[in-house]
Design goal:
Layout (H helix, E strand, L loop, with lengths): L1 H14 L2 H17 L3 H6 L1 H6 L14 H12 L2 H14 L2 H26 L13 H11 L3 H39 L3 H16 L2 H30 L4 H13 L13 H16 L6 H5 L7 H8 L1 H21 L8 E2 L6 E5 L2 E4 L2 E3 L12 E7 L10 E11 L2 E6 L2 E2 L5 E2 L3 E4 L4 H11 L3 H33 L4 H15 L8 H42 L7
Antiparallel strand pairs: 1-10, 2-3, 3-8, 4-7, 5-6, 5-9, 5-10, 6-7
Helix pairs in contact: 1-20, 2-7, 2-20, 5-11, 5-16, 5-18, 6-13, 6-16, 6-17, 7-12, 7-13, 7-15, 7-16, 7-20, 8-9, 9-10, 9-18, 9-19, 9-20, 10-18, 10-19, 11-16, 11-18, 13-20, 16-17, 17-18, 18-19
Length: 556
């Protein structure tokens, strides 16, 4: 897995180059001004449309505006909000959250634009089972320009990136996080969680978009309210430090974040990088995925559904991600001190040429359910520049082994041209993704994270996986037709189990490498489509807004 992760990191260094992030953010800013700040229309007119005030049962489509938004949100409001935010803070520091906000605002304009295009070019030959998305935009729009082969190639290229993202972020990331947090709290084997998830998801996706829309329409509001109430409770209890945390977010967005406790520090540039990556993964702005769900909406006005889509990044990033952020920061779990101490400071040992480690270490035994045989821990070491933070501190992982009444740690190795130096005075439990968020809740009320975040993780993951299965299905239909859909669904459910094999993914870095690949390749395919045909989207947008202002659309 280490070699595979290195390959992924090499690919990600190209597809997530700084210039790519600037282009994505710049595209969002472009459409923000071009649309006259469509963000305002999303939170005003978009809410009215979502509430059904403009619904007409005679319009083509399979699901209502509310169900389409729920289906899209079920894919975006998921473990990216619980585990992804934790990942951004762990790797990029509090400043990463500021850049998540910026992407959230720009993402509202990106969503409005990409959904407008997909609604303009969706296939409604079967009004009860419409097909849409960037692949259909590329195919039809290029054909109109007399370039049908170019359209098929670009559409097919997008589908390939869509399937990569479906497998990684939409499926495996979700399953892995649920299996990890369930194992952490309830000691249930990860593979057992994977099998159960696979069966549960399979039962839903067999029914197609109508069942997915129906399940999402019930599940998303329930899980959202449940999680938000828990987060608000934690913030009320820790209200005194919330203003300081907000200042910390802004300060560290433009200056290096100081290393402290479990946090290894990071430059402002890396805060920008991690904030952008995790916000794009969480909200899917510019990826072209959610337009596939919105294309199933029952409407004859393309922009009407697009304005609804603009609500997604607002709900996902500016509301849910912010609450998760403040819970993690206010409780101090992100930069906590050592969870367990050593009986004596371990010595640095050279394993081989250029490879360093620590001698086997005995821990001071404590009463903590997280300290058990096989527990995953880490220490902080100094050893050259860290490619994930821009600073010199690194995490060195280790595995706890119980021998009699005592616990010992066998440490992994670290490659360095000079001897490593132990910095931390003890070891930290390696809380990854959603588990770190759960521990933040536990710090306020014991057991709150165990139950609330575990339940939320299950609900979020299931809702995300069923929606992403539909996205991938539409890609398969575009490439190969309906006959391959059954095989695709079986493969999709099988990969849920594969993702929960313990030896596959074991660290935050490996998890990020996997999900970053899926998000990144979709941006490379979808942003050019938006820029090439953006004029058509904006023309339709302003035409619709002109009619709305003139009173041509009457709410029921």
């Amino acid at each position: 897995m280490e070699v595979f992760t290195q390959v992924l990191n090499s690919i990600n260094s190209v597809i997530w180059h700084d210039y790519v992030l600037y282009i994505v953010l710049g595209t969002g800013v472009l459409f923000t001004f071009w649309s006259g700040f469509s963000q305002y229309r999303a939170v005003t007119h978009g809410v009215s449309v979502t509430l059904g005030r403009y619904d007409d049962k005679r319009d083509p489509g399979a699901i209502s505006h509310f169900q389409a938004l729920s289906a899209a949100l079920s894919a975006t409001v998921g473990l990216g909000n619980i585990g992804g935010v934790a990942l951004a803070i762990a790797l990029g520091g509090p400043g990463a959250v500021f850049w998540m906000w910026m992407i959230g605002l720009a993402g509202m304009a990106l969503k409005t634009t990409e959904v407008t295009l997909s609604m303009l070019y969706r296939n409604t030959d079967d009004p009860d089972n419409p097909h849409g998305g960037p692949m259909f935009v590329a195919a039809k729009a290029f054909e109109e320009k007399g370039l049908p082969m170019v359209g098929k190639f670009v559409g097919g290229l997008f589908v390939v990136t869509l399937l990569i993202s479906t497998i990684t972020g939409g499926n495996m990331f979700q399953a892995w996080n649920v299996a990890d947090i369930t194992h952490q709290y309830f000691d249930i084997p990860q593979i057992g969680t994977g099998i159960f998830l696979s069966v549960l998801v399979g039962l839903v996706i067999i029914g197609g978009i109508k069942r997915i829309g129906s399940v999402a329409g019930r599940l998303v509001p329930f899980m959202g309210v449940l999680y938000l109430l828990g987060a608000v409770y934690v913030l009320v209890v820790n209200f005194g430090v919330v203003p300081d945390m907000l200042r910390l977010i802004v300060t560290y967005a433009f200056s290096p974040a100081q290393a402290e406790g479990a946090f290894i520090g990071g430059t402002a540039g890396y805060a920008f990088l991690w904030g952008m990556k995790r916000a794009l993964f969480s909200s899917e702005s510019g990826q072209g995925s959610s337009p596939i769900a919105h294309s199933a909406a029952k409407t004859n006005e393309p922009v009407r559904e697009a304005v609804v889509a603009g609500l997604e990044p607002f709900i996902d990033t500016l509301v849910v991600c912010t609450l998760t952020t403040l819970v993690i920061l206010a409780t101090g779990v992100w930069d906590r001190g050592p969870d367990v101490t050593f009986t004596s400071t371990p010595e640095v040992v050279q394993v081989s040429d250029g490879m360093w480690s620590l001698e086997r270490t005995q821990l001071v035994t404590i009463e903590d359910p997280d300290l058990r045989d096989g527990a995953d821990l880490f220490v902080v070491i100094r050893a050259g520049v860290n490619p994930n933070s821009g600073e010199e501190l690194h995490r060195l992982s280790g595995l706890a082994r119980k021998e009699g009444e005592h616990f010992f740690v066998d440490w992994s190795t670290h490659e360095s041209s000079s001897p490593i130096k132990l910095v931390s005075q003890g070891a930290f439990f390696n809380y990854k993704g959603a588990t770190l968020t759960a521990k933040a809740f536990d710090r306020t009320t014991e057991g709150l994270g165990k139950w609330l975040v575990t339940v939320a993780a299950w609900l979020f993951a299931i809702s995300t996986m069923i929606s992403w299965s539909y996205y991938g299905e539409q890609g398969v239909v575009f490439l190969a037709g309906e006959k391959w859909v059954k095989g695709y669904k079986l493969l999709y459910c099988g990969l849920i189990i594969v993702a929960t094999i313990p030896a596959l993914i074991s660290t935050d870095a490996e998890l990020d490498a996997l999900t970053a690949l899926g998000t990144g390749v979709m941006l490379w395919a979808n942003i050019p489509i938006m820029l090439i045909f953006g004029t058509m989207a904006m023309r339709a947008y302003w035409t619709y807004m002109g009619k709305l202002k003139a009173g041509e659309f009457r709410p029921h």
